[in-house]
Design goal:
By secondary structure, this protein is α/β, with parallel strands linked by helices. It contains 13 helices and 15 strands. The strands form 3 sheets. The chain has a 7-stranded mixed beta sheet with strand order 8-7-6-9-13-15-14. The relative contact order is 0.09. One of its GO terms (biological process) is methylation. Belongs to the class I-like SAM-binding methyltransferase superfamily. TRM11 methyltransferase family. Its EC number is 2.1.1.214. Its main location: cytoplasm.
Length: 436
Amino acid sequence: EITSLLSLCGGQFSGEQEIRVNSPFWILSIPSEEMARGLMKRTVCAKSIFELWGHGRSAGELYASLKNYPMDKMLPYLQSDSTYKVHIHTFNKTLTQAQKIKKIDALEFLPFKGKVNLKNPEHIFWILEDYGMDPNNVPEEPFQLYFGRWIADGQRELIESYSVKKRHFIGNTSMDACLSFIMANHGRVKPNDLVYDPFVGTGGLLISSAHFGAYVCGTDIDYNTIHGLGKASRKNQKWRGPDENIRANLRQYGLEKYYLDALVSDFSRPIWRKGMLFDAVITDPPYGIREATRRTGSPKETVKSAERSTENHIFVSSSYHLSDIFFDLLKFAAEYLVMGGRLVYWLPIYRPEYTEEIIPRHPCLKLISNCEQMLSSHTSRRLITMEKVKEFKDQDQNSYLLDGQYMPYRGHNSFREKYFSGVTKRIAKEEKDNQK
């Protein structure tokens, strides 16, 4: 997320130190404070950003680092007519008030000339201490110490204010608000962009893009979901109400002006005119677990079932393999994204068989990031971000079939069976353990 947002702000990702996976702190090189503020106006992953004045593996190293920090960079924030306070944050350890005061007093060598104001200071300075990630083995002294000037906080409050629990219209698989904003940031969504979700469902992914000023639209094969009809997903509610639809969700957050439309459509069948249309395609395809993978059928295909909605809308559906969904998705993105536009989607994975080779590829799309979210001990889903780097030509239509890479992806088709075999084994193990 940070890498995508830095590139959106015009910067590049470069860490001054190797990123420690087991640490909640990063040191980043960012050209300007303005860019740092722009980054924090979007991120839901980062909590706060500081101008780093010094750091070290011990208090002595920290103080030596602070004494080497250029005085001309410090002085504007230490003037006699200014107010300040020093805040201490310890990760994985709680300090007493006396311990905190002792650590603050130890910084008296810094030339603070202003007055202390705990309620409304002009400048806030932080001491950050990292005591590792293991709550059962907290060291006496921190692994790393940092001191810096606070610049801005991230957008963590969006997770609560856009919580699915408070939303008018939800379904069985409505996307968590935090993940929805992370996906919009991976897609580098910006004001006046056009963002499309081909498996729109209840429109959770549209909301985060609209929040960042993009115009949003989507399609879904489910007539009832698009029209807000049928059975409700909420507990103790049988049928959906008159104000349960995608438009009402955007209206709830004051974002209705960014809503273009949602169409009933089968993603496996083309409905759009040729040409580059979308700045981002952000979606969560169905995995066949809580939502069926299906497409419209024809007399030539094996008809699985005939379905009838509450509006007497009838269609037949046939199976839509996961591998076909992903290839249709990549082919669509390659053809309909603008140059530099991004595709962001979730890929379900059976972990014992996972390798990098099973990530679907397309010659017009470059893989930007591949992040894992654990679902269970044996399954996960990976957030795949791809960027369009090459113009789509007709010969790219089925290019994935040419180089023998198609077969590994067929494994995605059995994800449902593997998922439920794992669930069955776990239930059997739990029952066996309970009998002991």
